[in-house]
Amino acid sequence: MAEQMTSEQVHRQIPGWGVDGDPKKRPGVPMLLKPEVREGAHWEAPERQRLPDVPVLKRAELKELTATFSTAVPPRGLSGVLRRVAYGIPEHLVRHVMLLLVADRVDVVESRLRRGPIQSLSAVLGVVGGGWLLSRLRA
Q1: Binning pLDDT at 50, 70 and 90, where does residue 25 land?
Q2: Domain span holding position 81
Q3: In terms of C-beta density within 10 A (0-12 exposed, 13-18 middle, 19 or more buried), how is residue 79 classed?
Q4: Does residue 115 sit within a domain?
Q5: Residue 57: closest CA among 42, 76, 35
Q6: Is residue 12 part of a domain?
C-alpha cells in the first residue's frame, strides 16, 4: 500500500504554494514598490498628434485630446450620437459604460444594414416573426 502524503508534502509539490510567506518569492512585490522616475526620455512631454479632420471623442474630465488617439472609426449615425452623449458623462458613472455598450450594439446593427439591407431586414423579420410564431404555439 502507498504511504499517505501529509498536506505539507502535497503543498510543497504545488508550484507557487505559499508565495506570500516569503516576500522574495512573491510575484506581486515588485508592483507594490514605489515607482521610480527613469532617465533617458528625450522629451519632457510627448509630441502631440496633429488635430484630426474627423471628430474624436474624449472623456468629459479632459480639457484636450490625449497625446495619441485614433481616428480609424469616427462616430457616425445613431451609435455616434449615443457615444457623444456617453462621453459627456463622467467615466465613473455606470450610465457612461452602459451607453457605450448600447452604442456598440447599435453600431453592429447599423453596419449590418449598410452592408446588406435585404439580408438584415430578413434577419430582423425572422427574429420578430419567430418570436410571434413561438408565442402562438405556446398558447
Answers
A1: low
A2: 54-139
A3: buried
A4: yes
A5: 76
A6: no
